[in-house]
Automatic annotation (TrEMBL):
<feature type="domain" description="Tyr recombinase">
    <location>
        <begin position="201"/>
        <end position="413"/>
    </location>
</feature>
<feature type="compositionally biased region" description="Basic residues">
    <location>
        <begin position="409"/>
        <end position="419"/>
    </location>
</feature>
<dbReference type="InterPro" id="IPR013762">
    <property type="entry name" value="Integrase-like_cat_sf"/>
</dbReference>
<keyword id="KW-0233">DNA recombination</keyword>
<dbReference type="InterPro" id="IPR050090">
    <property type="entry name" value="Tyrosine_recombinase_XerCD"/>
</dbReference>
<dbReference type="InterPro" id="IPR011010">
    <property type="entry name" value="DNA_brk_join_enz"/>
</dbReference>
<protein>
    <submittedName>
        <fullName>Site-specific integrase</fullName>
    </submittedName>
</protein>
<keyword id="KW-0238">DNA-binding</keyword>
<dbReference type="GO" id="GO:0006310">
    <property type="term" value="P:DNA recombination"/>
</dbReference>
<keyword id="KW-0229">DNA integration</keyword>
<dbReference type="InterPro" id="IPR010998">
    <property type="entry name" value="Integrase_recombinase_N"/>
</dbReference>
<dbReference type="GO" id="GO:0005737">
    <property type="term" value="C:cytoplasm"/>
</dbReference>
<dbReference type="InterPro" id="IPR002104">
    <property type="entry name" value="Integrase_catalytic"/>
</dbReference>
<dbReference type="GO" id="GO:0003677">
    <property type="term" value="F:DNA binding"/>
</dbReference>
<dbReference type="GO" id="GO:0015074">
    <property type="term" value="P:DNA integration"/>
</dbReference>
<feature type="region of interest" description="Disordered">
    <location>
        <begin position="382"/>
        <end position="419"/>
    </location>
</feature>
<feature type="compositionally biased region" description="Basic and acidic residues">
    <location>
        <begin position="397"/>
        <end position="408"/>
    </location>
</feature>
Length: 419
């Protein structure tokens, strides 16, 4: 069979292949549906079998939407490169091909890079249709500087995820007797891709000035359009003040966060029960300010000022319809909109340099910022428990006292020492 043109494959963005978990059928029907939508792929040997085994692999992670999404991202990118660029099926891949693929991911073609996260598929007249704005890679810096599209590169964290997920994927295909080798395992010198740092990577966070502008912006929006933005204000305060992950705000297979998760102990102290990574439940302390924010949001919803035992009101409700928010993408859009509007306010007040960083800030920066601020004043053991860190070493990353002292001692070094 003929292979696709590599030139055309690199100059055009690929279409998404794998939908959300809720829209997948059995592996056979899902594979047939993909090839019906993309008949050109049938020209490549093995695409149907590749898809059947891929869908079987992915649906085994149906217990966690976050895990499914991360595995889907890595596997889908590989399939698109394998079929559209390399022009072969999974069974033909060798170690050298995987190394070529990793280099491709480190510097993908412009057409494969987007400026924001968007859904792969949309509902259109009752049918699921591919979103033409979706791209396999995302570089948020493009919003701030369109020329940065040429400077895209995967972070070390993303490269580590690539190796981990694809190794698991190929091991699964080996166990299913579909492949004979795991090409990822044959890459002996992973060190040329994965760096080992002799220093602690700095935590990406917002400055106090940036957070002040963000909070003021959302408070203003809540006054002007409370129906939409009282929820925005509550979410932003949860993410910063209790350093929650966005996955801990939405309803999924693990849990549905509800107002009844707020509760008091025998001493009258308020806590929030959260189900986090690894399906582990933890209790997060509720500060007086956060309790006041909760009262404000509940009054906006015409609820009693404080939650009651067993209350099932969703913690974060949909704006349209009833029920809880079920997609982390909705939370990302909400936060990004707040960042964008704060950026415009800062820039209009002549704070161009400080504002630029908001163009690349992510939701997780709010969690990092909240932890970084708290660890300055609270016992780090308490912060560790509230954050749900598995070890104290993770919490220690947020303590930058040593870096401050180190930089202060070097600030007045002379390039021309005095005699």
């Amino acid at each position: 069979m003929s292979k696709p043109s590599i030139t055309s494959s690199l100059s055009q963005p690929p279409m998404p292949l794998i939908d959300q978990l809720d829209y997948l059928g059995n592996p056979l029907s899902s594979a047939r549906q993909v090839l019906t939508q993309h008949p050109d792929l049938q020209r490549i040997d093995g695409t149907f079998e590749d898809l059947v085994h891929t869908f079987s692999f992915l649906v085994s992670y149906n217990g966690s939407t976050a895990t499914f999404n991360s595995y889907r991202r890595e596997v889908e990118r590989l399939l698109q490169w394998c079929w559209l660029v390399r022009g072969c099926g999974l069974g033909e891949l060798k170690r050298q091909d995987l190394e070529t693929y990793i280099h491709f991911c480190q510097s993908p073609p412009k057409a494969w890079i987007g400026s924001k996260q968007v859904a792969r598929f949309k509902n259109c007249l009752g049918e699921r249709t591919a979103n033409p704005d979706w791209r396999p890679f995302v570089n948020q810096a493009i919003k701030a500087d369109p020329q940065s599209r040429t400077a895209f590169s995967l972070s070390q964290k993303s490269l580590q995820a690539l190796f981990a997920v694809l190794s698991t994927y190929f091991n699964y295909l080996l166990q299913e007797d579909y492949l004979r080798i795991n090409p990822v395992a044959l890459i002996r010198q992973k060190s040329k891709f994965l760096q080992r740092h002799a220093y602690q990577e700095p935590v990406r966070r917002l400055s106090n000035l940036q957070w002040d502008f963000i909070l003021e912006t959302v408070e203003q929006l809540a006054r002007e359009r409370p129906t939409e933005h009282e929820r925005s204000l509550f979410v932003m305060r949860l993410l910063f003040g209790m350093y929650l992950r966005i996955s801990e705000l939405v309803a999924d297979e693990r849990s549905t966060p509800v107002m009844g998760d707020f509760h008091t102990d025998a001493d009258g102290n308020w806590w929030l029960r959260v189900v986090g990574k690894g399906n582990k439940a933890r209790l997060v302390t509720v500060s007086d300010d956060m309790l006041a924010a909760l009262r404000r949001y509940r009054e906006h919803l015409n609820l009693p000022r404080l939650p009651y035992v067993g209350e099932q009101t969703p913690l974060v409700q949909r704006l349209k319809g009833r029920g809880p928010v079920t997609s982390t993408r909705q939370i990302r859009y909400l936060v990004q909109s707040c960042f964008d509007q704060a950026f415009e306010r800062m820039r209009s007040q002549g704070l161009e340099d400080e504002a630029q960083e908001l163009r690349v800030a992510t939701v997780h920066w709010l969690r990092h910022t909240g932890i970084s601020e708290d660890v300055k004043f609270r016992p780090k053991e308490h912060v560790k428990e509230d954050a749900g860190h598995a070890s104290m070493a993770t919490t220690d990353r947020y303590i930058d006292t040593e870096l401050r002292e180190r930089h202060a001692s070097a600030r007045h070094k002379k390039l021309k020492p005095e005699l």
